[in-house]
Design goal:
10 helices; alpha+beta; 7 strands; Alpha-Beta Plaits
């Protein structure tokens, strides 16, 4: 009898072991599937963005050649015509690269529209003919450039930019679907784990003391795991957040814009208060901290919808304006930022007011190798403003 019980218990542990093995096998298969899908999605998105950005760049080169021909800037127009053919051949190559990707119908619809405009642009350029170029008929070129070629080039760039946006949207949708699949995986894992625990409990119930010890151990592990996860999350948040103001910090800025430096264009500005040290010297560091927190809260309230705001050092704030903000709009907003930061603030029943200086940068692709060099340019322009009396905004000149 005892032997049969022992055999039954052994069979129970074998069943439990099989369930656990199945759990890990299923976990491995599903995790690998999710990883493969994510990797494929990321690769497709990267190649799509690269192809579209390259087409945009070559299209700009094509437009530059057209402007040069219209302005009679080249001694031998026929060489530029040859260069134009080379550029268009590059565009076709990038189009083939994009078309080889498995893109959703919504993406291809916008892309095909942009492609048709590019084709029309080239046909219009070809319709000028090499005879007109040899005769330097600038008036014909100028008229065609203004009325036909330039609008087509602008429209094509807008459609290509819209294509990138749709690619990113579709990528986000795929990411959400993969997240749902991950939740399903965790549910299956939990179910199998429950079944495994149930089998162990059924066939090992005579060992109550061992079971109690096992449950206690699992509880401790769960508590440790929860504390570990909480600690990791706090560490991650602290790494990219300024504790005093609650804003993103210098490391977050580096993570957010590093990849945009090579091919992106955007508006960015930095500001800090002139002679802020006098606040700390006069009222103490605690008062200065309260002052900074009040300024930061006002900045988030006033400009959080037009820019991502970072508290990168001390009383220095960085504003990365939204993509739809133009250069002129950024300059206007910068004036408002200076006004808000220079306004009086009531801190611990005292009114405090300091002027501030800043710098605005209309960043173009490839201007800087990294975020450090970008901030050096901005900080240099801001220091020059302070050296000239402060309470002013300088513009960073593009190289």
């Amino acid at each position: 009898m005892a032997k049969n019980k022992k055999k039954g218990a052994s069979s129970g542990f074998i069943v439990a072991a099989i369930l656990v093995a199945l759990m890990y096998i299923l976990n491995t298969v599903l995790v690998w599937n999710i990883y493969t899908n994510n990797n494929t999605t990321n690769t497709q998105t990267s190649m799509a963005n690269r192809a579209i950005n390259s087409i945009n760049g070559e299209l700009s080169n094509l437009n530059t050649n057209t402007i040069g021909l219209a302005a009679n800037l080249y001694d031998n127009p026929l060489e530029i015509v040859g260069d134009t053919e080379r550029i268009y051949a590059n565009i076709i190559g990038y189009e083939k690269m994009f078309e080889s990707l498995d893109m959703p119908e919504s993406v291809m619809k916008r892309y095909n529209y942009a492609k048709s405009i590019i084709t029309t642009f080239k046909q219009k350029l070809d319709s000028l003919g090499t005879n007109q170029l040899q005769e330097n008929d600038a008036s014909v070129m100028n008229e065609t450039l203004k009325q036909e070629l330039y609008p087509l080039q602008v429209t094509a760039e807008q459609m290509l930019t819209a294509t990138i946006s749709i690619v990113n949207i579709e990528t986000s949708k795929l990411a959400r679907r993969n997240a749902i699949r991950a939740y399903v995986l965790m549910g299956l894992m939990a179910l199998i784990a429950v079944l495994s625990e149930l089998a162990i409990w059924i066939f090992a119930r005579r060992s109550k003391k061992a079971k109690a010890e096992l449950e206690e151990r699992e509880l401790r592990l769960a508590e440790v795991d929860a504390k570990l996860k909480n600690t990791r999350q706090k560490a991650t948040d602290l790494a990219v957040t300024n504790v005093l103001t609650g804003m993103k910090n210098r490391y977050a800025l580096d993570n957010d814009i590093s990849e945009r430096l090579e091919s992106g264009r955007f508006q960015i500005a930095v500001f800090d208060m002139d002679n802020f040290r006098s606040i700390n010297d006069t009222y103490g560091y605690d008062f200065g901290d309260e002052y900074l927190a009040a300024v930061a809260e006002k900045l988030k309230e006033e400009f959080g919808d037009v820019a991502e705001i970072y508290n990168i050092t001390g009383n220095e704030f960085c504003f990365v304006f939204n993509k739809n903000i133009s250069e002129s709009q950024a300059s206007g907003i910068a004036q408002n930022i200076q006004r808000v930061m220079s306004s009086p603030y009531e801190v611990l029943n005292l009114n405090v007011q300091l002027p501030c200086s800043g710098a605005v940068y209309h960043y173009l692709p490839g201007d800087c190798l990294n975020v450090n060099s970008l901030l050096v340019k901005l900080d240099t322009a801001m220091r020059n403003a302070k050296m000239n009396g402060g309470n002013m905004i300088n513009n960073v000149m593009n190289m």
